[in-house]
Amino acid sequence: MNNRVFTVGSLISGRLIVKHPAPERTERKIIKAEGIIVEQNGKRMEIYPVKGKLLDAALSQGKPIQYKCRKGTCGQCTIKVVNAPGLSYPNEQEKKKLKNEITNGYRLACQAEIL
Ligand code: FES
After folding, report:
1. Is the pLDDT of residue 69 over 50?
2. Where are the transmembrane segments (predicted)?
């Protein structure tokens, strides 16, 4: 058995070559947040996409989206969608309530579906 004792002097560069194995290359995966970004009353919120109604996902994540009827009639849940991967197309209730605002990115959170 080799019981070599290293002293400070033995570790000075040039006296002892300590070979360290090359560090393994680790691949870093950059996981980009794919959240749905919406605005309501000037407040921007990011909602983690969970299949179902956008309003339900937002409320379950503690996002304070205002709403009232949940039927698509009052318009209280109107939001501006900034970024929405995987969001359904506007349904008839939204088209009826929001009219041309849909083309500007507005949706009813109680009607929009996360697919
Ligand atoms: S809560 Fe009334 S339209 Fe969405």
Report:
1. yes
2. none
Indicate whether residue 65 lines ligand 1 (CB < 6 A): no
75: left (phi over 0), alpha (psi -120 to 50) or beta: left
Question: What is the distance in A from the centroid of ligand 1 to the CA of 57?
Answer: 15
Q: Distance from first CA to last CA of the chain, Å, rounded?
A: 65
Tell me the CATH number at 43: 3.10.20.30
Q: Which residues pair with 36 in a beta bridge?
A: 47
Q: Is the CB of 106 under 6 A from ligand 1?
A: no
Number of compact structural domains in the chain: 1
Is any atom of ligand 1 closer than 6 Å to the C-beta of 68? Answer: yes
Average pLDDT score over residue span 62-80: 97
* pLDDT score of 65: 97
| 10 within domain boundaries | no
Q: In this structure, what token pair is assigned to residue 19?
A: 């070979």
Q: What is the pLDDT of residue 70?
A: 97
Q: State whether the beta carbon of 73 lies less than 6 angstroms from ligand 1.
A: yes
Span from the CA of 94 to the centroid of ligand 1 (angstroms): 10
